[in-house]
Design goal:
The protein is of the alpha+beta class. It has 10 helices and 19 strands. The structure holds adenosine-5'-diphosphate and magnesium ion (MG).
Length: about 425
């Protein structure tokens, strides 16, 4: 089946040389509800605005319905956009705010009325049509902003953090309203949010971003159960996944107070590092062939730097970064080294033998309790299983843990 919207290797460099989006590749089917999720500044709005035609695309190709759309004027894309700020006209009534975009498109009055009434029914705005925006609550303004998009009958809905100005209770209500709306209308929806729970609960496809790069694409359960790296693993879930630093040697993980023997790990471990090593060797061999700029971004991203200015690239700096990385990877392949052991709080249990920890804070949640340990580890237990001990011994569900490499942040198993 032909994909409805395709972003093929899209990048965005702003005029001030900030590289906001890098090598963005995603395929969206008709009717999808896609969430673009990641922390503030990771390039979500930039990506959405490029799809809407509100921001130019620096390189790569945007396809809409199989046609190149890079230069298609925004008004000619069959898109309705919901802004974070709502952007309502203060001097117009709710009715006129919703009707505005239709009037400018010269749709006849009877049709406009019919569409606005239908949308206000769906959104429960019927009694508010004569009010001005300043006479509305945040949730009501939010619904008007949605209404204005619905009446357009556009086949693509783009929403940029539409719920972030609402209080917690309303946010949860509006979440399900938007999902219901999507089911009713069926428009392909791309929804930007920094809230992992919104992404997990609303979308059928999640694109996780960090520092301008896609980290992982998948359905909610896949993203939650099968994270590809430390960023994705710790971004989703409350309480978040525990990351415990362990020493690895001879198929054994040393937790300090406990040693765990792994089975069949060495083959995967060695293959992982061999692959990374050959990749970095490839980069080093190619650096001088004009690729330094490309790899500069990786070096800066992993260092966690947000501003990626092109004019500051120096070949030597990039080379040093990758040589250091190569050394670390080669050491990791050959000798005892530190790995990150990932386990969600609900997959830890109290046990007679195991890892020792000191409880510094116990947080009852009703039927469950979160134990916060001194080494940043958290356990989520049934409240009856915990008897106020200060020192506990715990173990993990052996089918639920992950192991990550600390040099690349990527998952090994
Ligand atoms: P998000 O929506 O994920 O918070 P944005 O797409 O707004 O992120 O921004 C991504 C990066 O691009 C940030 O570093 C931001 O400062 C930068 N940026 C956004 N808009 C502009 C602009 N108009 N000019 C220059 N830099 C921008
Ligand atoms: Mg944004």
């Amino acid at each position: 089946m032909e994909k409805y919207i395709v972003l093929d290797n899209i990048s965005k460099v702003y005029k001030n040389s900030v590289k906001a989006v890098n090598d963005f590749n995603v395929e969206i089917s008709k009717g999808d509800f896609v969430a673009l999720v990641g922390p503030s500044g990771c390039g979500k709005s930039t990506t959405l605005r490029m799809i809407a035609g509100l921001e130019s695309i620096t390189s790569g190709t945007l396809f809409i319905e199989g046609k190149v759309a890079n230069y298609l004027p925004s008004k000619d894309r069959d898109i309705a956009f919901v802004f974070q700020s709502y952007a309502l006209y203060p001097h117009l009534s709710v009715f006129d705010n919703m009707a505005f975009g239709l009037k400018t498109r010269r749709i006849n009055k009877a049709e406009i009325k019919q569409r606005v009434f239908k949308a206000s029914d769906i959104l429960n705005l019927g009694s508010l049509l004569d009010r001005r925006p300043k006479e509305l609550s945040g949730g009501q303004m939010q619904r008007v902003a949605l209404g204005r998009a619905i009446v357009r009958h556009a086949s693509i809905f783009l929403m940029d953090e539409p719920l972030s100005n609402l209080d917690a209770k309303l946010r949860i209500k509006m979440r399900s309203e938007i999902v219901k709306l999507h089911k009713e209308i069926g428009s392909t929806t791309i929804y930007v949010t920094h809230d992992q729970l919104e992404a997990i609960t609303m979308a059928n496809k999640i694109v996780v971003m960090n520092l301008g790069y896609i980290q992982q694409i998948g359905n909610p359960m896949d993203i939650y159960n099968n994270p590809h790296n430390l960023f994705v693993a710790t971004f989703f879930g409350t309480p978040t996944m525990n990351i415990i630093k362990v020493l690895y040697e001879n198929e054994s993980l040393d937790f300090g107070s406990y040693k765990y023997q792994l089975k069949d790990f060495k083959v995967k471990h060695d293959a992982f590092y061999q692959e990374k090593i050959s990749k970095v060797k490839g980069i080093l061999a190619n650096l001088e062939n004009g690729l330094a700029e490309y790899y500069f971004y990786e070096s800066h991203n992993i260092e966690g730097e947000n501003k990626k200015k092109i004019e500051t690239i120096e070949l030597e700096q990039v080379k040093v970064y990758f040589e250091k990385k190569l050394n670390l990877l080669e050491e990791a392949l050959l000798s005892k080294h530190q790995l990150s052991f990932g386990i969600r709080p609900e997959h830890l249990v109290l046990s007679k033998e195991g890892i020792k920890g000191e409880v510094i804070f116990a947080e009852p949640l009703g039927s469950q309790i979160i134990l916060h340990l001194n080494n940043d580890v958290q356990l989520l237990l049934n409240i009856d299983d915990y008897r106020n001990e200060e020192i506990i011994t715990y173990l993990f569900n052996e089918s639920k843990f992950y192991i990550f490499d600390n040099i690349t942040g990527e998952r090994i198993i």
